[in-house]
Every structure is written in C-alpha cells, then in structure tokens.
Backbone:
C-alpha cells in the first residue's frame, strides 16, 4: 500500500498529498491519510481565501469516500481552523469535500445521481446511508449547481402551476421554461406570497422581459403575473378550459339520469340499494362515451352516442357543445377565435344553465384564451413535469419537507442533471 499515486487516482483526489493508507481494525474499513498540498492549504472553507491559522479545531476528521469494492473507504486529515477576515474562525477548506459535510464530493455526486435515477431503497442499500442523509446530499449538490449557473437567465415564455406533494394540503409552485422544456424554479406554497418569491428571485428587470405566461385560471396566479410581469400576456391552458366543458356536460348527464326511468329499482331489503335499469342504466353506462374524444371511441361507445342522440336530444346537444369547445383549441389561431365566437353564441342560446354559466366564465377569461390560441402555448409541458415530480416522490416514498424534493426535482428535471464522478 505504498503506491500513493494509485490511491490518489482511486479516491479522485486533487491538490492533495497521500501520507499513508491503513486498515482500521475496528470496522475493517480502509483509511487514507491525506493533507492538502501547498496551494490548497490554509484557506477559508467558506470563501476559499488564504487566511492565517487560528487553532487545531477538533483534531483529525474523516470523510466518507467511494467504496473500494465491498469495503468502506474514509479520507482522514487534520481539520484546523483559520481566522478569516470575512467569516472569523472557520474550518479550513479541503479539496476533496464541500465545507461542513462528512462525505467527499465524489460520494455526494454519486448519491445525487442514484437518487435521481433509482429508488430510495436501492440508493440507501448501495451506499449504506440513511435516506435523510441522501436528502441532505441532494440539497447541497443542488446548491452547488446553483452557485455556478443561473436557471432564471434568459426566460421569455414560462408556465406556472401547483402540485400537491404531501397530504394535508402541502403544495409546491412549479415554473418551467417553454423554450427549453426544463424546470427552472420550485417553491413551497400555493398563494400570492409564495409566487412573489419567484418574481423576487427573478428581479424586475428580467420579469419585464417575459412575453408569455401559461397557467390555469387561478386568481392568485393572475394577480401576481399582472403585477410583476406587466409586459407578459397570460395564456389560458386549453386542457383546463375543455375540462370546464366536460364539467358542464356532466351536469346535463346527471340531469338526464335523474329524469330517466328505472333510476330506482326497489329491493326487498331497505338497507340495500337497488341497481339502475332501463334508460337510466344506459345513460350511466354512456358516461365514458360522452367524455372521450370521437377518434378514441370504440364501436360500442359510438352505438351508445347514437342511442343518446335519439332518446335525449338535449344531452346530445350538450355533448356537441363539449366537442365544439375542443375544436376551438384544435384549429387555434384566427380560425379558433371565430369558432369560439360561434360557440359562445350557441352556448348562450342553449337553454342549458351549465353552458350558459360556462359561456360567462369563458367571456371573463377571453383575453387569456385568445392569447393561448395565438401562441399555441399550453400547460402540457408543466403537467408532464408535475407527473415526473409525483414519480420522484413515489420512488422516494415521500419527503419530510419540501427542500429535498425541490432539490431532487431541479437536479432531475433542470438543465444540469448530476453526473457520475470522473465523467463529463
């Protein structure tokens, strides 16, 4: 074990002198004794500025390094303190680890890479650490990335949405860049103050450069965007607008079911609910046929729609109104605007209260819908991002707080994912 160059290479050490290697008889681990070289010596662990010595600190310390096969490896070195002009007495910088942690940089990078791509149990068993430790590692690796890059630079078209990450109404606000497809920011909360944090970090200058902001019709998003991004147009999400049409259709479907014969089939027992029969059963079974897009219908579902057209013209008109609203976003542009004008006229004259109210709602948000038709922007990208964040949460079996989840999401879905040690 006298070949120190081999251990420098094996442990990924730079600006470091290997003094010796031994086996710890207590736990069988390999201990590599090192010291920083002359250029890396006596520097503040926070600002990296060369400073005079202060004291010996707590003596020698160990840092967990990457395993050598099946054996744990530790880096051992003195950890004196220096007197920094900016930070006072501070533990010296060591080239192989971040300040104030017990793992080497290579160990942190491997843990972050595994956390992004594998399950919680696989990461913990392979590295022989607790999941809380992995969460702390992911957070500091992400902080290290954010010190070198600015994820908010160059934003022009963004999407904003919220996602529930934990029971008890725990939400994250998620912001994506439509031009790159990357997640650029996430933060806890679901209100004006939580979204203001994003615009505070973005700054007024860069907020003034935003041209498009896609979001659902949440009032708190609209208020903050109008206040902090005055030059951006707000684009309604087509999926949410069409969902309004499906909700209005459901009102008519329930009306038809309540008025249909056979809705209540008497049973011998007063404690058992009778099954629907006759017309009400047919309407109940046609639920998915009314919801689905025409091109996705099965032959049986097409037959159900033909039956509804003959037996309940009002419900069939509600279905056609839903499809008319979907057509608006299929054609987009000026054609979509003209189609929306005709649809509003039809909905107002439909004599169906749910669609009359929907017409009022769409008129209220007409500007945002027109901007979406002109730009073709939707929240599809951010909904995809939300799905991936839910997957990260499930793989990790949940998080105790939002910070590790935010850091993991930014590493996995941002512009700079973690890389394996020694690779670029």
Residues:
């Amino acid at each position: 074990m006298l070949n120190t160059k081999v251990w420098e290479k094996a442990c990924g050490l730079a600006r470091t002198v290997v003094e010796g290697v031994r086996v710890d008889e207590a736990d069988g681990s390999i201990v590599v004794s090192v010291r920083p070289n002359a250029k890396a010596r006596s520097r503040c662990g926070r600002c990296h500025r060369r400073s005079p010595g202060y004291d010996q600190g707590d003596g020698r310390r160990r840092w967990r390094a990457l395993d050598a096969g099946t054996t744990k490896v530790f880096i051992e070195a003195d950890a004196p303190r220096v007197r920094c002009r900016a930070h006072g007495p501070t533990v010296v910088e060591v080239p192989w680890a971040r300040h104030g942690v017990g793992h080497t940089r290579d160990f942190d990078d491997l843990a972050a890479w595994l956390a992004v791509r594998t399950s919680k149990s696989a990461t913990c068993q392979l590295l022989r650490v607790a999941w809380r430790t992995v969460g702390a590692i992911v957070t500091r690796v992400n902080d290290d990335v954010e010190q070198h890059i600015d994820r908010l630079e160059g934003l022009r078209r963004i999407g904003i949405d919220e996602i529930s990450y934990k029971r008890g109404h725990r939400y994250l606000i998620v912001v994506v860049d439509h031009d790159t497809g990357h997640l650029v920011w996430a933060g806890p909360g679901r209100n004006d103050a939580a979204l203001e944090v994003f615009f505070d970090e973005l700054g007024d200058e860069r907020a003034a450069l935003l041209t498009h902001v896609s979001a659902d019709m949440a009032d708190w998003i609209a208020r903050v965007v109008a206040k902090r991004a005055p030059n951006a147009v707000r684009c309604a999400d087509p999926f949410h607008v069409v969902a309004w049409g499906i909700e209005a259709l459901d009102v008519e479907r329930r009306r038809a079911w309540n008025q249909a014969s056979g809705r209540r089939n008497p049973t011998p027992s007063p404690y058992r609910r009778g099954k629907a029969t006759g017309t009400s059963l047919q309407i109940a079974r046609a639920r998915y046929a009314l919801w689905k897009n025409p091109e996705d219908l099965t032959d049986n579902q097409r037959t159900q729609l033909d039956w509804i057209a003959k037996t309940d013209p009002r419900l069939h008109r509600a279905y056609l109104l839903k499809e008319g609203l979907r057509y608006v976003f299929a054609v987009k542009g000026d054609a979509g605007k003209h189609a929306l004008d005709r649809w509003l006229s039809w909905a107002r004259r439909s004599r169906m209260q749910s669609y009359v109210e929907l017409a009022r709602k769409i008129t209220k948000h007409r500007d945002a819908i027109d901007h979406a038709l002109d730009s073709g922007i939707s929240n599809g990208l951010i909904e995809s991002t939300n799905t991936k964040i839910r997957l990260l949460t499930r793989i990790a079996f949940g998080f105790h707080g939002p910070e590790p989840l935010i850091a993991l999401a930014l590493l996995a879905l941002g512009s700079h994912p973690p890389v394996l040690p020694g690779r670029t």
